[in-house]
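re the bet — no i am not wrong, look at it urself. input seq straight from the record:
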Amino acid sequence: MLLSRKNRLASAKTIVFAMAIACCSMATVGRGYAENYYPDHPVVQGMVERAIQYLSKVELKGTSTHAGIGTEVLGAYTIYKVEGDPAHPVVAKGIGLAKNYLDTVTAASGGFEDKAVYHVAVCCMLLASVSVDEYGPQLVKARDFLVRIQQTTGGFGYIDGSHKPTSSDISQTQYVLLAFWTMSQLGIEVPDDRVARVLQYLYESQIKDPQSAAIGGWPYQYDPGPSTNFGTTSSLTAAGLSSVLIAGDTLGVFRNRLAEADEEDGLIPPAFKRVIPESEKKTRGVNIDRNRLDASVKLGLMYNQKNPYSRTTWHYYYLYSLERFESFLEIANRKQSKSPPWYNAEVERLIAAQAKDGSWGGGDSGDTDIVLGPQTSTCFAVLFLIRSTQKAIGEMKEGVVRGWAELPKDLRTVTMVNGKPMSKTEATSIDDALKMLEDDKASQGDDKLVAEKIMFSSDPARRKDELNRFARLLRSKDWQARRVASKVLGRSDDLEMVPELVFALSDPDQIVCRNAETSLRLISRNLNKYHLPKEGSISKQDKIKAQREWKTWFLEFRPDYIFVD
């Protein structure tokens, strides 16, 4: 969860790796490129568009060695990350498959197929990206399932009986950590001690023999018995480095420390600092040795220096791991780059390798991946090109510091295009939008067209005024304005808005009531707490009960607060 861990981490604000990270790129640094590419570059957008057209038309079944639900869900996840439309036919199908798969697998006690761990992780990534609110029950079950199958080594591996129970897999461990990280950033708590155990496994499995050319790398599988260990590759080392950095970020070593620094500098309003009632506080026994984490990353970077990457069968898997590793490394170094050399190098290779049908890994360009095939290869290529990990990291940090994203200005003319809010006519500021909502004579339009996210002012005084004006709209005569306000206030993360939202639970409009409870669940981080019926009509008794329960919760923090009925 996005919680401060000051009692568990050192208070240092500056994060520096001793290797200056100038050599961190796995691509050749210093080479000149025809363009400085980035995800919104027209060339990149064109490649992505052709690839999405391919994935939208092809039957997503994978190859004989990499087939099954994972390919379909990965395709849906890739299209959703680009289009943002859960109603897209491929995405909608993938959501249904992912939901049913998690319900089935997490209830089973055995009989798992060999790719079960991969599939669970990818299903989590898709459902969490679409709606942690709607698919929270499946995500919680998946978290508990992954905790249950964690191996004694601390890592994750095959659970179909085809490998030794202690033979953990760097690749599968990486995907489980990515699922854990995604869930933890969205408010689903992941046990810190379990993530710390994974980190310990990663330390132990990294090659440390100073006489070995593979020092700093990671093998495919690791077991305390050396006879079962596999050789290192650039792809596996990228996966290992990604895993170390993901685990560190999940445990608050990187961005939570940055957030704490912002809190201390007064950049984050006090309401963004989550307050935990004494009854919910847990004793955390996890203590991260920052020096050991840094040493592991430095050793991995040394491997990359000594073993430059060359094209392998698993090239597109490598690209996806590379982007993830580099993105988390940027967070560790507190510096993000729009157009880094490693990205430019691979974009140019992808330009040459894309087939006429928009695919990679099996088309007419001569670029072939016989193991993954064109469908999975194309997904990995797209996720690399759009810098999906950097985007996710940026969105999560923005959620803490800024209060979500920007609301299109004129709410009367907002429409949804590919799942993204667009405005036909631009108002000049959020103040204009508020004035429009406050005008009882204005036609507000359908609240479904209102963006889900909003950027409040970073100035504390202006932000307070904006929130108070939205709160006053809960008493507006216009039911559309009340719907908007009850939805937007939950994105404020402001504890002061709780009494206003409790009041909104009594609104005669049932959508306002449901919006208000959703907002209360977001502010409280209690995503699975429902006091109103999830479906059907809401009775007066339901409203009274919900108000009573949310008041009780709020009074744990503010015992001196007096609700005025």
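see?? DSSP finds 20 helices and four strands in the chain. told u. also The CA atoms of residues 241 and 297 lie 6 Å apart. so pay up
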